[in-house]
Design a protein that fits this description.
heterodimer; B: mainly alpha; 0% strand
């Protein structure tokens, strides 16, 4: 039984060679294949684009704050909402989730690195240059004269608007190529995470002992394999249409724009789950630690995640109720969409049961995770409303839909991303984020979020369509739009406080130590920040909470787990 | 309550990361092919003008060559597992020759289609879907051949031995996938679609 040890690495002198000159430091980041450095690069890259796309959202809100406003031109407005959507999904959501997976999965399963470290670096740089290429369109893609040049086709780029006849110039090509490039990066990372999870686990880390975070990242990566690739295929078709004169989406030659819509949403809907499952993954780690209880219903959580992955592949056409499908088609997608509510409901109840009777400690990560629980419930309920085809016929493409998916993307995903950053920042940097600034960030963001997105449901119900440049003053949307914009700015202030907190705490933050939250997963057994090799000797685990076993040798988990 | 402790000396086996990685890539590639195949099937008979799939000749010899390359590469895998490096090199070269024959056959087929039947991507929907699906597969054959030729170079330099058997099997998985996809493409394009 001498194997029951978790190596806390020795002195750090050798682990951290001195930084050397600035150039050496930069070089070390560019050539790195260390999963932790790449994880940090992903997260920093995503936070940068979060600020960019947030700025775009602010410009949109200024434009819509008053009727007949002319803050930006209609052409620039189209570019703003296209770039906002594309950036948030592909350059913020995906990279940040893969950043966390990169950083945490090897640490949590007791491995020294990912399965393919060089593929890992290659994937990051593909993703990074994909993002740069998208933004290069602003100076490089010639649109119509005077129209600017960023993509202006909406993030879903519906045919036939993307045809050469309707979108001359190269902005659509930048959109397609940038996403194909970053898509290959995503595919590489997904393959890497799957191989790492299945083949790099330390001794005793059976599948059913893996932290739920790792389980969900495995599920997400598997979904990524079959979700990103249809988008890549459809974008290749789009480029064939645009450059080789193909007819895939050309109705005049017998092609069908509806086929693009199907292909896009075959990607687009599972994509939502690819983004939200990592948010669940974060909640699965944060909520138990701050409730001081093991997560409730571990096997049910695993089953629900796998269930969501499968069901989410069969729901895409609920984005297409107004296209005019058969009633059989409509009914199928109504039912499949409603079925997703079952596994997600299981998850919500399990988190509540985890908190129930726990000694809840509302540190900033837990505040954000609690906000997530509440908001994700509402997002799920409006989702079920929209899954009913007749209701969707009424509200399709209205601000009600915008409010619904921002409730998911911001209320659930961004809240949990913040939770994750507050939770793991001490591990990655060795310093705590300021709790005071964190509380300001949380409350301002929460209030701003609800002012904006709760109100958005109402303008939607009053009939305001999405993607409109401006509106007539007599529609009764004026006050509500102003309120939405004010809420947006409160959120922006909160995010700036957060950015300041990240920078300030890096230099002035409290020393974190190895395990500031008294947590239970393996990453907290390493020094903060962990050395390049992670673990001095390979850990051996005997339960789902290896650090609990170590801290409580008289009452270890493995006595109760099977 | 019984306990099931895990001991350090217990045998702890994990799947090969190379195989897992390659199988994941294959799943992802299947996603790309599925979309192109679905588009092909959906657009059968929807062309508004010009040549129909009737003009296609069924490439039986090509198909036999490509599918038998799966057999030769499997024999090569077995040869290197048993350290028969010369036999491995011969079988590997044969596999590559069969792959190159397939590409050459495709090139001849396309030449006929383009210059005699005047079918290009631009002509009609059939042209668009045909060239993109068959071309997507041919691209994968080319990528596979690049991988195979790397191994061939190392073999000729005398650097390949039994220790590399697993890596070679991982690469061979990709080749098997390319062959398997051809069965689907062949069925859809030359049997169902024609």
């Amino acid at each position: 039984m001498a194997d029951q040890t978790l190596p806390i690495s020795g002195p750090l002198g050798e682990a951290y060679p001195s930084r050397g000159t600035w150039l050496e430091w930069l070089h070390s980041w560019v050539v790195t294949v260390d999963h932790k450095k790449l994880g940090i690069l992903y997260v920093v890259y995503a936070i940068f684009f979060l600020l960019v796309a947030g700025g775009e959202a602010m410009a949109i809100r200024i434009q819509l704050a008053f009727p007949h406003n002319h803050f930006v031109s209609p052409e620039v407005y189209n570019e703003l909402f296209t770039m906002h959507g594309t950036t948030m999904v592909f350059l913020v959501g995906m990279p940040i989730l893969f950043g966390f997976a990169n950083y945490l999965v090897p640490l949590m399963i007791g491995a020294r690195d990912m399965a393919f470290p060089r593929l890992n670096a290659f994937s990051f740089w593909l993703t990074a240059f994909g993002g740069l290429m998208l933004y290069f369109s602003i100076i490089g893609g010639f649109g119509l004269y005077g129209m600017g040049s960023a993509p202006d086709i909406g993030w879903f780029a519906y045919a036939p608007l993307t045809a050469k006849a309707f979108t001359p110039g190269h902005n659509t090509d930048y959109w397609a190529l940038a996403l194909i490039v970053s898509g290959f990066g995503t595919l590489g990372t997904a393959i890497n995470i799957i191989a790492t999870t299945l083949s790099m686990r330390c001794k005793g880390m059976t599948l059913m002992r893996m932290p739920l975070f790792v389980w969900l990242m495995l599920v997400v990566s598997a979904m990524t394999l079959v979700t990103i690739t249809p988008l890549t295929a459809a974008q290749v078709m789009l480029l064939i249409d645009r450059y080789l004169g193909g007819h895939f989406f050309d109705a005049q030659a017998g092609g069908s724009p509806i086929v693009w819509i199907h292909f896009f949403w075959i990607f687009g809907h599972p994509e939502v789950y690819i983004l939200v499952l990592p948010a669940f993954a974060i909640a699965n780690e944060v909520i138990p630690v701050f409730s001081r209880k093991a997560v409730f219903g571990y096997p049910a959580m695993v089953a629900a995640s796998v269930g969501i992955a499968f069901v989410s592949m069969t729901v895409w056409a609920h984005h297409m109720f107004t296209v005019g499908m058969t009633s059989v088609g409509n009914t199928f997608f109504v039912l499949s969409t409603m079925i997703v509510g079952i596994p997600t409901g299981i998850k919500i109840f399990n988190w509540l049961a985890t908190m129930w009777g726990g000694r809840i400690h509302f540190a900033t990560p837990m505040l954000f995770a609690t906000g997530f629980l509440f908001q994700f419930l509402i997002a799920g309920l409006t989702g079920i409303m929209l899954s009913v085809a007749p209701w969707d016929w009424q509200l399709h493409n209205s601000y009600f839909v915008i409010a619904h998916f921002h409730y998911v993307l911001v209320g659930a995903i961004v809240f949990n991303i913040f939770a994750a950053i507050y939770y793991w920042y001490p591990k990655a940097t060795g310093r705590m984020l300021s709790e005071t600034l964190g509380k300001w960030h949380f409350w301002l963001f929460l209030i701003g979020f609800h002012i904006t997105f709760d109100t958005m449901h109402f303008v939607g119900l009053l009939g305001m369509p999405r993607s409109i440049y401006t509106y007539e003053p007599d529609r009764g949307w004026n006050t509500l739009n102003l309120i939405i914009s004010i809420g947006g700015f409160i959120q922006a202030i909160a995010v700036l406080i957060f950015a300041w907190n990240l920078i300030h705490s890096y230099f002035r933050g409290k020393e974190a130590g190895n395990d500031p939250w008294d947590a239970w997963t393996l990453e907290w057994a390493t020094p903060s920040p962990p050395p390049a090799y992670n673990f001095a000797t390979d850990p051996v685990v005997r339960s789902r909470r290896p650090l609990w076993d170590l801290k409580h040798p008289k009452d270890p988990d493995w006595k109760y787990e099977r | 309550m019984s306990t099931i402790p895990i001991f350090a000396d217990e045998s702890w086996r994990l799947p090969s990361r190379g195989r897992v990685g390659m199988l994941s890539l294959i799943v992802g590639e299947s996603g790309i092919f599925t979309i192109f195949v679905v588009a092909y099937i959906y657009y059968i008979g929807r062309s508004t003008t010009g040549p129909t799939p009737r003009i296609l000749e069924v490439p039986i010899f090509n198909t036999v060559c490509l599918l038998s390359s799966s057999l030769t590469i499997w024999l090569a895998e077995r040869a290197i597992e048993h350290s028969f490096v010369r036999r491995f090199a011969a079988l590997w070269a044969l596999t590559m020759a069969l792959g190159i024959e397939f590409l050459a056959g495709t090139a001849i087929e396309w030449r006929t289609l383009i210059f005699e039947d005047h079918l290009t991507v631009r002509t009609n929907l059939f042209g668009t879907t045909f060239y993109s699906l068959v071309g997507l597969h041919a691209t994968h054959v080319i990528v596979g051949l690049i991988g195979l030729s790397l191994v061939m170079i190392f073999t000729l330099l005398g650097r390949v031995n039994r220790a590399h058997a697993e890596r070679i099997q991982v690469l061979a998985l990709y080749w098997h996938f390319v062959d398997a996809v051809w069965v689907v493409v062949f069925t859809v394009v030359y049997i169902v679609g024609r």
